[in-house]
Amino acid sequence: MEFISQHPVLVVSIVKIAVLLFIVMTALAYLTWLERKVIAHIQSRWGPYNVGAHGLLQPLADGLKFLFKEDVTPPVSDRLVYTLAPFLALSLALTAIALIPFGPPSVTLLGQPVFVVSNIDIGLLFLFAVTSLGVYGVALAGWSSNSKYPLMGGLRSSAQMISYEVSLTISVVGVLLLAGTLSFNGIIEGQSGYYLHFIPRWHVFPQIIGFLCYLTAAVAETNRIPFDLPEAETELVAGFHTEYSSFKFAMFFMAEYANMITVSCLATILFLGGWLSPFPDTWKWPLFLPGIGLIGLGLYCLVDTITEMRGIARLQFAVVTLLCLGGGAICLIPAVAVVIQGVFWFTAKILAILFFYIWMRGTLPRFRYDQLMSLGWKLLLPVSLANLVVTSIVVLYFMMRGPG
Amino acid sequence: MNLPVIVFFAFALFAVGGAVMLILAREPIHSALALILVMSALATLYLLLGAEFIAAVQMIVYAGAVMVLFVFVIMLLNMGLEERTDFSKLAKYAGVPLGFVLLLEIAHWLWRSPAGAVVANGPQPVTAFSTVELSKLLFRSYLFPFEATSILILIAILGALVLARKEE
What we know:
The structure holds 2 protein chains of 2 kinds.
Chain A: H1 2-6, H2 8-42, H3 58-68, H4 79-97, E1 108-109, E2 112-113, H5 123-131, H6 135-144, H7 148-179, H8 184-189, E3 194-195, E4 199-200, H9 208-221, H10 233-236, H11 246-271, H12 289-307, H13 312-331, H14 334-363, H15 369-400
Antiparallel strand pairs in A: 1-2, 3-4
Helix pairs in contact in A: 2-3, 2-11, 2-14, 3-11, 4-5, 4-6, 4-11, 6-7, 7-9, 7-15, 9-11, 9-15, 11-14, 12-13
Chain B: H1 3-24, H2 28-48, H3 52-77, H4 89-112, H5 114-120, H6 131-141, H7 143-164
Helix pairs in contact in B: 1-2, 2-3, 4-5
């Protein structure tokens, strides 16, 4: 106990890292489930349905399968780099998430904010520093596999990530000009307040062009459809991870989903007001939205349990129903509702962006490689540069006019 | 020994070790990886000095952008192992010892200098130099050199474009 009181930062940080890691890993697993379900419904299929009710245990089964598969190592050109690549990809992707504030700093434990692992002044710069290294995982994997298709995938991915990182960074600068700070909490708090008393002052409204540029570049950065050229299966078998099997492949898979979560978090923080509620503070009923939502979900599950489910699935779904109803009831307690308010809005916004990602995958076909490059350099870069120039002029005008 | 000193020596070791690996590695990609290690270790050392902004820029520009291009080119050309020439006798018997003498001399004079006295007193608490202060220096006091440098870089980019363009 003495140790805890002497080093509150260290102890709280370690606990926060462990909890965040658990949550993120679970979220990654269920993101794959969500993706398969949504895509399946877009394509008029059912998606995972047999492992657990509505396929809810499918991520667990997938994880176990990855663990028990044989780890085949091809005659690689370089065993050290071949092994290093997936570790690099996953650890960098997870490090970036440590910088994200998931809730307001006012909620504290032992004097430490609960909802962020590492709150630093130049959070945004550090996030870019970490994510700019992410390309090495893919590039080195492609190179060290000693095989043609992975090499092509690795090359494509390096070229693509370098090209789109420029637009990504420039589209963010517009927000920084408005916010005047590099700290995530500062950027979020700068977005509080309302136009006309009900439209939230989020940066997405003045920076709508920046937001669209950011979203496009972010999709390309995370190698997702329609920009998933590095792993285009019709051309490159599976691209950079063709030669990887078992858990090393799973690590690339997890890194990709972790990167998706990171860019969604960043979009939420920069453009959508982070953990701020979209409703004015004077309205009290939005406080109970998380509870009402969960209870609604629970009631739907209840109906489903009784009418649709049979056998063991009915038992599993009954558990899900109880969890939803119980969680919803807890969220209705006013004290709890106030604490989870920020996290609820943050999560809701991230989920909306992730859904958009998946929706796009189900809708758009893949670009051709030359189309991808000309889109990045000839359209996205000039547009984001123009956005930056216009924003600077407007900001300068308001600064010259003085405060008010 | 307190934490900053331990961190300093750990990352100084990474930087020096990476630099040695960079020279000794026969595989070009290992050299590139070693250089990335050196740059990341340097960024951490900047962080210890309280230069947060410089540390982040070091990671983004050098470790993130410049080295990606290096790795890209190495992969594109798919270079084989480097050819190794043996040390000449002169380098082996005169160069290596003389190099060590030079290092010792630099260490000696650094120890005697005012900077060395500061180091001998043990680590000082550093206050982080905020990004706002840095930008004020850059865009107020040193605006002209800053803009002149950016024009210089622009000229360099144009020069590279002209050189790389294929003959019609």
